[in-house]
Amino acid sequence: MAIEDIIPVRFQDDKLFLLDQTELPAHDEFHEAGSIEELWYAIKMLAVRGAPAIGVAAGYGMYIKARDYVKKENISDEAEPAVIKSFITTLEEAKAYLDSSRPTAVNLSWATAEMLEAAKKAGENTGVTCGQIVDLLRETAENIRKTDYDSCFALAENGLSLLKPGMGILTHCNAGILATAGYGTALAPLHLGQERGYGFKVYADETRPLLQGARLTAWELMKSGVDVTLICDNMSSLVMKKGLVDAVVVGCDRMAANGDGANKIGTSALAVLAKEYGIPFYMFVPTSTIDLNTPSGDEIVIEEREGSEIYKKWYSRPMAPAGVKTFNPAFDVTDHKYITAVVTEKGVIRPPYDVSLREIMGEK
User: Fold this and answer.
1) Which of 140, 180, 235, 265 could form an S-S bond across to 52 if both were Cys, CB 3.0 to 4.6 Å?
2) Is residue 50 marked as binding?
3) Has the keyword Disulfide bond been applied to this entry (predicted)?
4) DSSP state of 227
């Protein structure tokens, strides 16, 4: 698969196809998510992952639910308030269901809220039919995808303004093309820099236990021609100490109003190390990922996953004694004091984040 063919969420012929990221890098195959139940499972099992990509997929999922419900009930031409109300209730239930698949990433609930709000507003208009609401939802889902696509290019430009040619860059998890509808978030300036001859030397840590850095980031950066070196998670301190890292770039799944950022487990450790070694730590955060309704990282719900991912998932036989207790949080929260700058599609912001985040979101 060429770099231009990496489209993790593809909607064509009125069908939703997902690049199954659980099979990468060995196999690059697309599978159809024909219902919200199939989409829920794909999100939960990380066939589609990355906060922006999940949001895009969820938008299409809400449309599919609406389309199929209207078809099943044969109410496309209906405009009666009672029928519209029942239709909206079905969409409310669909939103709650999809949101439950992965609670930490705010783009998921943001996208489903956008879809639900569009349906509710349309339903308030006298004479609007269920079929017309379905058509509107398809347009809304497409707008969510396009907005993220455009956002990625803006993130690439803004992020590149912080970096210099030849820099050594450390990144964590996968915040690239595979996680979005475009260039990516944290990896966006690396892809753009490669096109412009920046010659970055990237260190991708493996990102245990699901190995998104090894399986996904290394794969897509190699496709892009970027000079990438894979390291174990516990090697990050050494590469920093040896002077091989000039900046750390990471993504974000939810940023609280004070600038605390939830991202893949292990991110906060890199932030602390970067602070110790005097290395700038940049968190890439589309504005759709900023949650001003959450005061701080303490209020962010952290998803916990099956412990078998730690000792069994990638091994031919278990790598821990039978019956051992496990703790497998999928995310951790980086305290805002460790974040040098936050990169958004609207610009780069710096502390105090409780002020700058509200300003960039257009709030006082």
Assistant:
1) 180
2) yes
3) no
4) E
Measure the CA–CA gap between 342 and 313, rounded to whole angstroms: 34
Q: What is the sign of the dihedral through the CA atoms of 141, 146, 152 and 154?
A: negative
What are the structure tokens assigned to 136, written together? Answer: 């509107």
Strand bridging mode 15-19 / 9-12:
antiparallel
**Domain boundaries defined on the chain:** 3-152, 163-361
51 has binding-site annotation = yes
Say what the pTM is: 0.93
- C-alpha distances (whole Å) from 290 to each of 150, 180, 188, 298, 339 are 17, 16, 18, 15, 15
Class of domain 3-152: mainly alpha
Alpha-carbon gap, residue 37 to 86, rounded angstroms: 20
Tell whether 196 is in a known binding site. Answer: no
| pLDDT tens-place values along the chain, 364 residues long | 778 889 999 999 999 999 999 999 999 999 999 999 999 999 999 999 999 999 999 999 999 999 999 999 999 999 999 999 999 999 999 999 999 999 887 899 999 999 999 999 999 999 999 999 999 999 999 999 999 999 999 999 999 999 999 999 999 999 999 999 999 999 999 999 999 999 999 999 999 999 999 999 999 999 999 999 999 999 999 999 999 999 999 999 999 999 999 999 999 999 999 999 999 999 999 999 999 999 999 999 999 999 999 999 999 999 999 999 999 999 999 999 999 999 999 999 999 999 999 999 998 6
3-state secondary structure 305-341: CCCHHHHCCCCCCCCCCCCCCCCCECEEEECHHHCCE
- Residue tagged active-site, from 253, 260, 291, 332: 253
Is 233 noted as a catalytic residue in this protein?
no
Q: Is the peptide bond before 286 cis (omega within 30 degrees of 0)?
A: no
**For the stretch 52-73, what's the b/e string if a residue is b when 16 or more beta carbons lie within 10 angstroms of its beta carbon?**
bbbbbbbbbbbbbbbbebbeee
Contacts of 86 (CB under 8 A, 6+ apart): none
- The answer to whether domain 3-152 and domain 163-361 are alike in fold is no
Residue 263 annotated in ligand binding: yes
163-361 has CATH 3.30.420.40 classification = no
